[in-house]
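Re-run with default settings, no changes from the original entry. Doing this only to confirm the output is reproducible before filing.
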Amino acid sequence: MKPQTDEKALLEGLANSDKKAVEAIYRDNYNVIQALIINNNGSADDARDIFQEAMIVLYEKARSGTFELNCQIKTFIYSICRRLWLKRLQQQNRFSAPGDSMEPVVPVEDELEDHERKDAEFEMMDNAISHLGEPCKSLIEAYYLQKKTMQEIAASFGYTNADNAKNQKYKCLMRLKKIFFTHYKNGNGDE
């Protein structure tokens, strides 16, 4: 599988202090971590610090020679950064209740499995959308990704009114659901 080979090459590059590998890991992951930190009482400086700490952890693990990554690099970095930021918030008494948006009690292994499962499901949904056909694919993307209103969709797609656009969106969602569960869930009891 190509992505795993690329990720392995990135880790080997990181272990050998290859500038291109380090830059690729930064490029692919930094923005997500910055958003995580800023959305959880942090600053851009905090994000840089936390990301750098996570890169050091990943570097040391990659250099060890015994490290076996069982998830995507982005999942690993996200998990490390989340834990480091949670620890820093606790030290600064800015995080107190486990009911906040960042739960401290989930073991890393469970969290990584959850990320891997969600990544796989997003990929399956993306594949299902690509098999949807037009105009459904564009309509679903306009509503859910571009956040257009039903009035805007009706005008763009030539429907007489927003209700007709809404009915078409519903039909498209039903078609998408059927494609998703039939082709990608392989009969797990869902439809």
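The domain at 1-105 is CATH 1.10.1740 (Rna Polymerase Sigma Factor; Chain: A). The longest helix spans residues 108-130.
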